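User: Show me an example of a complex going from sequences to structure tokens.

Assistant: Sure. Here are the input components:
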Amino acid sequence: MATALAAPARSPLRLRMPRLSTSRVTFAVAVVWLAIVAAAALIPGLLGPGDPAALDPSQVLTAPGEQALLGTDHYGRSVLTLLVHGARTALVIGLAATALGLVLGGWFGLLAGYLGGWVDMLVGRVVDMLMCFPGVLLALVIASGLGASTTNLIIAVGISAAPGFARVMRGQVLSVRSRLYVEAARSMGFGSGRIIVCHVLPNALAPSAVLATVTVGTSIVAAASLSFLGLGVRSDVPDWGQLLSMGQPYLASAWWISTFPGVVLTLTVIAVSLVGDWLRDRMDSD
Amino acid sequence: MVHVVLTRLLAAVPTLLGVMVILFITLRLLPGDPTAAMLGGAEATPETIAALEAQFGLDRPVGEQFLMFMGDVLTLDLGTSYATRQPVGVMISQQIGHTLQLAGAAAVISAVAGIVLGSLAAIRRDGWLDAGIRVLSLVNTAMPSFWLGLLLIMAFAFGLGWFPATGTGSLAHLILPAVTLGLSAAGTVTRIVRNSVLEVLGENYVTALHAKGLRARTVVAVHVLRNAVIPTVTVVGIQLGALVAGSVIVETVFTRQGIGQTLVQAINGQDYPVIQGVVLVIAVIYVAINIVVDISYSAIDPRVRATVAR
């Protein structure tokens, strides 16, 4: 830290050039990583050979090496195969929960922003109430009410993402609603439904789209956290969060069971958020 | 000032009533059989089940159940645990001290880390230190807190043997969980501090201070940080409420006592009154902290005070 403080100020010119290319390189790396994860989700057999559920008593808790690239767990299952097959669970939950949050929250935000009045007040109050459950608490309550399964996990995480979308959408609709082209459409006698769908929605969607990319990442993290608490997918579905928590009793002896899913999960969420940043920069420049 | 406090408190009442409605709907109306949870898998005659339902009021109409629940909560009665048959209020009051201790320590850690890293990043804007801190905070926000906790256990409990991996009690037991929880919020605080320091650095009076010949270090430490602190207070305050919720996960990682552990056990045993009680308490703490932050905000910043008073 001390050396950092003493470092001389660099000229802005020398910094600009490399930073631009670093951001391009990180973006490219992020895209490549997401492509690998997507490939694993679509055709798991390609990257992670073998049956993820195959138990091998002779291979229990093997350290990473020639026998098993990333080691095996306490049932003798290959960690690599489990990770590859878990990609589908992570992506499905991340994307489906985000879609649910976007559609649900976006719809109410749109109505609240466009109609105003008591609809706006009602939606605003409900959003306030839902925002009283900090962090994963809302998802946790819903998941514990519904019971543990992949679908319920998606519903729980999706609903808890909805208030954020409602706020962002409402704000954007408020600003779009007063634009000239909306007024023009209204003066031409178009109905509210047509104005909302054809004129307001397309022009108010950008901030929600950026939020959606971020939400894919946060949903994966939230789902993994619920998995860790025992509210996740069924135990026979390969899942990163579940594998991470299954490795906890073996942290001292078999570090690889928790470490690899943790690294993969973190890298994926980082990649998603880098793509989100890129998207936001793109949208801002328009 | 009294006016401000009263308005904020009154506005919180309908919100908290709504929170109770949401809790009631999710936990009572969704599928799930509380009597099965109470019996814990044991076989029971229909008479036993009926008796249990009568004891907990589950045989009444939904509307009546809801009014009973509201009435109980308003008289500060959070009900009785299905599993332990203990009053939920007693269970929470026995555990909440541990959680508040954890959340408080975590808030201090996140505030200190966030202010130091955020102001360093702002002062060395666009330098490698700024870039490094940005990468750190990116990794930080992408990491689930339980994974960070497991890493710290591997490094500092099993690897170096400095701290115990699990348990409650001494200061040594508090450090790893508090660092885990604190760091999970530090990324956000860092980002806000960086932005607000940058904003203040651009102000005219800062240029004036430099022109006056003050050392750059004095300008930052004495003048910039003090003015950049207001948004930070808001963030740390709101984070504190989120930290109480985050303790649910961190307490589970470190098998540390607290309301988070109580909540997780209740979820696994479908002990609805306990789930309801703990979540309600966390929500009330969160809302209360938000109100306190709002009020202290106007106490710190004379400009806000002036607007509110008008």
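The lines above are the inputs; the final block is the predicted structure for all two components together. Residues 1-7 of chain A have pLDDT under 50 and may be disordered.
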